[in-house]
Amino acid sequence: MRKRGVIGAEVEIRVPFFDVDSINVVWHGHYVKYLEQARCELLDALGYNYDAMRASGYVWPVIDLHLRYAQPAQFGQRLVVRAELVEWEHRLKINYLILDADSGRRLTRATSEQVAVCLRTREMQLASPSALKDAVQRQLQSRDTPA
Length: 147
Prior knowledge:
Strand order of the largest sheet: 1-4-5-6-3
Radius of gyration: 16 Å
Helix content: 25-40%
């Protein structure tokens, strides 16, 4: 069983024609951009998107990416892509699920890892900067505070 994330976000995508190959299924490389769309939604929900990362003095390159394809997505299919934050203390680790929007059937699962790199020195950080940790903490606290 994969570890569940503490914060999640999802996007819905309809597979466009230009993402499919000659047998009408999504070419494997296009799944990465679907993950990126969900990751951006998650980072926006945290209040620490790519613009905020740069403003805090860091960039976050992807250093590892794993995908497991269970079923192919096809032209016109509605997909739900879910991103869940599972680690943030020393790296940004996100788990993903790509589901068929109509049936809920799992098509793909994936994991990405990113590390903070200081813009000024270009050095990889061994711990996540406080800007990310604070953003995660604020989001967790806002969920626990009754409305």
